[in-house]
Structures
1.
Amino acid sequence: MKKTREILIRSQLFGGLPEEHITEIEKITVDKHYGKGEIIFCDGDDGTGFYLVATGSVSVYKLSPEGREQTLHIVRGGDTIGAVPVFSGKSFPANAKAISKSHLLFFARNKFIQLISGKPDLTMNILALLSARLREFTIQVENLSLKEIPGRLASYLIYLAREQGSGDSIQLNISKAQLANLLGTGPESLSRALGHMKTKQLIAEKGNSIRLLNQGQLQELAERGRVSA
């Protein structure tokens, strides 16, 4: 298992901070372990602290009145969940559960607020993280409300390519059912969209690996909902 210090140094939130800050942060971390499907927090729970995913992956989702899950985003190693309500002093606005065996670091709100007082570097990192979260949600709302399924899928594949920094090859680290949920559609519609992209030679698929064969046309599909003839 990775040491706490290594996890902090490699994380999006704490990476690049001075050694003395990492040492102080390490002292207030609490290890949490969750099995696949185990709930981490529920919509409406008090935001008593936030989490950093060390290993594994976590789904952040909302439930419809009928009990249907709508995935908001999938959080993997090095990223955080639950930071917004911690700094706003409010309850968690969504649910979170482990979608694989996961190791998380927990930071109690009161201890963390006390720690960051007078530390501008860390405060700026937090502001950058919250700004990125807001941008992600803005893009997702736009995708789900304005775009058809092929456009949503194209947007997500382009996003993954940028996030993974792997050029035209990406790894799909969630199941097709989870991807369909994330895009606000069903498995059959997702399969049709993937099949259409392969027919048009926009992508090639092998297991969990997807190669983007024409990022220009994928971008066009993401923005306009169709590609030029």
Note: Residues 120-146 form the longest helix (27 residues).
2.
Amino acid sequence: MGPGTLDMIANRARLKRIKMATLGAPNVDDVESWYSAWLDYVVVERGSISTKMAVSWGLAASAGRRFVILGPESGEDVHIRAVEIDPVPDFNTLTTWGWAAVEITVADVDEVMRKLEGSPFKILGLPRELTSASSIRAMQVLGPADEVIYLTGNVGDRVSSNHPEPKALIDRIFIMVLAGPDRPALKKFYHETFGLSDQGDYAFPVQVLSDAQGRPLDHKFDLSVLVASERGNKLELDQYDAPAGARPGPANQLSPGVAMTTFEADSLDGLSVDFIAPPSALYEGYLSATFIGPAGERTELVAKT
């Protein structure tokens, strides 16, 4: 498949872009302070989750919980939202199905590494190339909500690789990582339901996954990449085999770590998904609705009214 074909198919995708990643966070203040001080993110909004929003998510106990929304210094309107949850002491990141990580584009990953020295973020993986022949260089950190963040730079041709141009040292989310026990089924669902185009299937060692799951460093993880209609918006699907399992979480609240992804869709009409509640106007200028996907992931869709 040539690049022209990829672009043509992507333009028909029902999902346009990543709009927001939501974290289940025992301490919302830590998320705000860490992201503000070390990732140069700025507060967009603070408040409490409304009953109407909690019902839309199917999480009644989230009503009244504090939240904060942050965005990159560049002003790109792709956000990270932290919502207060009860602590989950038995949660081990990168070992459960569902939304596994956020991937943020950066201008210079080695400069980011230097910036984070002495920060409270735990370094999971030092900067390294994706493969020996890759122009992509990335590092991984663990945040205050036990969320995994990939910080990724690309020194090659960003247009052909569908990589966004960073407008700040640390810019916006451009990939959401979803893990499940049946990657082909996940791929089929998101490809057929939303028309996301196929960037390919891959298998290579991923140090942070091997470390988390107790596998040999040369173990190859299977993954797929799907592409939304707007440039620089992708969905990575990772295969997590046993002993990985369903994510623990507090009853009727968001799960810990990366709990939910919000995508902007062209429309909420005619989609073959079972929304938890009918679409409603939870955000100014948008209708929104939420569904549970094949790996137990909670996914919110918004579409302009």
Note: The chain is about 15% helix and 40% strand.
